[in-house]
Design brief:
Number of helices: 31
Oligomer: single chain
Shape: globular
Distance between the termini: 77 Å
Strand order of the largest sheet: 25-26-28-29-30-31-32-33
Amino acid sequence: MAEEQTRYSRLAQITQLINTEHDLRDVLEHVVTAISEEIMRCDSVGIYLPREDGTYQGYVGKPALINGMTLDMHIVDPEYDLLAKEVIETRKTIYIPDTSKDDRPDQRAIQAFKINSLLVAPISYENELYGLVFLFDYGTPMNLTESEIESVKAYVNMAAVAIRNANNLTRKEKLISEKQLLLNVTRDLSLCSSLQEALDKCFYYLGQVLDNPNIGAHFIDPIAEYKLKPASLSKESEWTEEDWKETHQKAQFNHREDPVFQEVINTKTSILVPDVFEDHRTNKEICEKFGMKSLYMIPLVSLGEVLGAIAIVNLKESGQVYSDSARQLAESIVDTTAPVLFNLLYMEKQEMIIQDRTSELIEKNDELEEAISELTQISREKDLILNSAGEGIFGIDLDGHITFANPSATELLGYDNEKEIIGAPYFHIFDDQKTFLEHYEQKDGHTDKDHFFFKKSGGTFPVEYVITPKLENDLTTGYVVTFKDVTTRKQMEEKIKYHAYYDSVTNVPNRVLFRDRLNQALQYAELTDKPIAILFLDLDRFKKINDTFGHSFGDKVLLNVAERLQKAVPNGATVSRQGGDEFIILLPTIEREEGAVKCANRILEAFNAPFVIGDHEISIKTSIGISLYPKNGDTAETLIKHADVAMYKAKDLAGNQYQLFSPEIESRTFEQIQLENDLFKALQKNDEFELYYQPKFDVRTDKLIGMESLIRWNHPQLGTLPPGHFIPLAEETGLITNLGEWVIREACQQMKQWVTSGYSELIVSANLSPQQFNQQNLVLKVAEILEETALPAKHLELELTENLIIHNTEHTLKTISQLKELGVQISIDDFGTGYSSLGYLKDFPVDTLKIDKSFINDVTTNRNNAAITKTIITLADSLQLNVIAEGVEKADQAAFLAEHGCHWIQGFYYSHPLQAETFQDHFLKSFIKRG
């Protein structure tokens, strides 16, 4: 009884250590101590943790030295230690009382340590293996009882929990670190004022993520090359700037002719070349001169336009491959940098235009000064110059009265002719009350400050002017004023300034101006000790609007959304577009939390009415996340991040609502990020997805006519996931295109096997998402898959949703016609749920209408659904189209459909979706083969 109490006390102590998040080594050392104190006959206890090469290395144990070796010098290789291998495979503890009668343990260790008895236990939790525990003796056998073995297992279970918690904490810290890094990148880039500064920031963060400083950039735009050359190289690179420049000149390298660079530019995707001398695309001569061993190139893309590419090279050894997470993070950094470079490049171009114009004006003014100095001697040339000059020129005597004006001056000042202005005092033109002498003496007779001149009508316009004295025998007899209307330039400067701080689509402040206002609000809030609120908004299902109607239509929706938001928020609030369909609102003056909630409710009410864009009426809802200062953070980054987290929580709760931030919901965001990462990795491996097949039958003969392919994700931790758990995420992240392509290829490969086996009358169907359908190379990709799998096209049917085909009619008709030319059959899925006239059907070469499950559910009891279903069947019959009903679950539903002419059905009435092998056993083996 005392022993059990001692054991429970030890277990409780270890549990407390785990719950208080002590260092993993401390916890495991307590586990080792507890085991050694429990099993007194045991000479050695060791915990071994897995390494990347499949072996296990000593981590903690007692004693610290065995045969003069520390525990971390001990390696267990399951290829030699068959006992360890069996424990790993079975996840069961194995005790060997006498090692001389068992050949499974590694005999080298048995002989070296003179082990008589041995126990090996797996450190596992929820079927995941975290390591191994070894107990053995040197002299007297341990003679362990069942009770003692169970005690060891109890301590080992505590070790498993500790290791699992440590691993989870490491993964969470890594996700936080990556997201914080991207926030730092965005923050630093927003403060950059030059191309070189933005590029240096990009190089710095890429070097951190990839642990490689050898980074350079090549640009398509000549202005960018001019501004950066040759400094488009990381400051931390192993190359010097001089070597970089000299090698380029000697090699006569032209990136516009380089195959790898051109492929990155044309495809807008990154390329990783582990060994440049093994890849046919690389220029071997250039690689040798630069000393490159491997190459990683990422495109710079902003608003669909390619600016150039960033190259990361390895100069030491070939075969360098970055992890998927490192590559994903690196490409996110480049994607964040590209828009900043694009905006800075635009500013550089505008600045160059302004400089060129200013230089031109100065040059012309210099020429005019020289001409004016000769006016006293050559009156004919004077008149010629004055009358032909494009700039305005007028003279003023010593009393400040106008003595002459050229045609350009009278026109710019709004007078009909020179006579109207001659004799007028100078202050009829100049915009301030200085004496004319003060105007002249300012900056020694010249001024580069912008001024305004009065027109005859009383209005003003901006000018640049120069005042030059008229000299006779070194005496000033008057002054000549040369001026230029700079209205266009001023408008351009204002436009540049506007685009630097306002979003071009919605005309509301952009993230730069928003961040400035937020920082000012935080400073004021700190002084006054008053709260402020951040509302982060995301439009629900906005991506579907873009995919269906196009991005220009989506921009009009965003403009309407911004206008409604500005009307819904209180005076003094700032509405800003952060990018995409995300908006953020600053409430700088609220008394309590209820003020932010009240504003959120007004915004939700503003979205109740549909948006009318042209001939379309669109219903849009929004999800809102709220964070408060100082309750949820005291920095701009923290408040924005927490509002973003709360917004995702609102979206997870079906959207169209607000959510206040709390620490409890932050973990959900990490789970979402983890699922996105898992989906991306799964698509790289393609071994976690599986197709299930649901049969289609003809109720007249009960004969199988085909099957629909339906994807499932066999997630390593979450188990088998249905499409509803990950397809929306794939659509949101743009991964749906690759996923849809995998489904078509996998379905064709499986169908080819069944056709080869003699089932040559069946058709397999696969769904096409809107993003996949709108690919420019969709038809080419389907043709490649059919050729690759050798499946006759007549055995493949592609299902399109009704909402997809009723928009972009010209493009849709062309694509469907090209697919039909391949021999593929086309089906309209979810038929009857669309928002348009049925007149489009006569124009599209489709084969089958698929009645949506929503009409079938109560077709025998709901008159409206029955009427719609019968109408669809009649419509299909009149257009000579096939018709099939999905979601049929009951016999009376099947009977109703058959009675009214719909003979093809699909649903649980016949079968749930099945794995390929099960489908074959249940349906194909009883199917009559026909050649």
